[in-house]
Amino acid sequence: MTTNASTDEKELKASEKIWGKSVIGLGYTIIPSLLLKSQNRLGIKPTELAVILQIALHWWEHDKKPFPSKQALSDRLGISPRQVQRIIARLEEEKLINRVERFAQNHGRTSNIYDLTGLVEKLKQLEPEFKKADEDAKRKLRNVARPKSKNTSLKGE
User: Fold this and answer.
1) 98 near 118, Cβ under 8 Å?
2) What is the DSSP letter of 64?
């Protein structure tokens, strides 16, 4: 992904102004607004979204999928590891997440890798519809803001 350093710096500065430099200094996660706007449309329940956001917290590079432990997710969310497991299973059924088993060098199991490609693809499919709705809303607002013809007067004038 190509980034513009000056744009990134401006966005960081804006984030620091909103949240405070010390808070942003501890790190931040980039989440597309479309995920939040389409949560209901995608059928993602609030606790499922919380799990997705916690997993996304660990996704720093495109080609390196996140692998937080169920215990870490459980601790942060205040729910049991079994609840986390059930939520992830449902997200997997909905093809939003794909779990990939991971093994340590001694062949013992370790935390799963979570591939969010399904979620990303569904968001890409929804993007044109949301973009059109956004453009339509902006066009309507521009039309309302324009002066009416000279023969049309506002009521009460």
Assistant:
1) yes
2) B
Work out the pLDDT band at 10, boundaries 50, 70, 90: confident
User: Alpha-carbon distance 127 to 42, whole Å?
Assistant: 12
The answer to whether the beta carbons of residues 101 and 70 sit under 8 Å apart is no
CB atoms within 10 A of CB 82: 10
Among 3.30.1360.70, 3.10.150.10, 1.10.3720.10, 1.10.10.10, name the CATH number for the domain at 15-144.
Answer: 1.10.10.10
The amino acid present at 2, given as its one-letter code, is: T
Residue with tokens 């744009």: 7
Q: Return the HEC string of 5-43.
A: HHHHHHHHHHHHHHHCHHHHCCCCCCCCHHHHHCCCCCC
Tens-digit pLDDT profile for residues 90-104: 999 999 999 988 777
Give CA–CA dist 122/41, Å, rounded: 11
